[in-house]
Target: Enoyl-CoA hydratase family protein
Amino acid sequence: MTVSTSSPRDGVAVVTVDHPPVNALPVKGWYELADAVRAAGRDRAHNAVVLTSAGRGFNAGVDIKEMQRTEGHEALIGANRGCAEAFAAVYECEVPVIAAVHGHCLGGGIGLVGNADAIVATEDATFGLPELDRGALGAATHLARLVPHHLMRALYYTGQTVTARELERHGSVWALAPDREALTEAALELASRIAAKDGSLIRLAKEAINGIDPVDVRRSYRFEQGFTFEANLSGIADRHRDAFVRTEGK
Model:
């Protein structure tokens, strides 16, 4: 698991996650991501942050295999708290965060992009919450920031994915890119436009926009997580996670 930070353009930090094969993050990874995003935003040399990933897709959520091979509830609690910290780090980052998405963006990935300030994506990118099929509940808070309310509900209940082009039609995706190279350029172009502004004003603008948000994303997501714990205590969650691990092992 690696999280690296670079500064390819003036005023812009790029935080890159790389956890093969599909960027399903272990507990430690969520905290590392949170720390990297917060550090990039605190650095006064940066007026914008691009969040991206290497490998096959942007993010596949939590590492369910880690959860199932860990005795007791330690990994479940760690994943829930780690996700909450990473999502909050994106939302509370002192400067705007642009999510550059390719391939799959699932589960926890929705939490990251739903809390970002802007999204650019490759045309083949897909977004979804397979939470119910994994014995979990959560990130409806963030999916609701990407699509209209009734569509959010249908997507949540079914686990169906939507394409980047569909999200663009809903106004959630700033720009579409034909490939990874163009994605990087689109993300850096938007980040550079933001970074050219006065850094102090950008930070005030980010705080002001968060302050008028109609939903407290931290509290809303934490409320959702309570139902994940209930599903786990009832045994429902374990059955679904075990079935997922068995399927993945075939």
Remarks:
- The radius of gyration is 17 Å.
- The longest strand covers residues 2-9.
- The domain at 2-178+199-249 is CATH 3.90.226.10 (2-enoyl-CoA Hydratase; Chain A, domain 1).
- The longest helix spans residues 74-92.
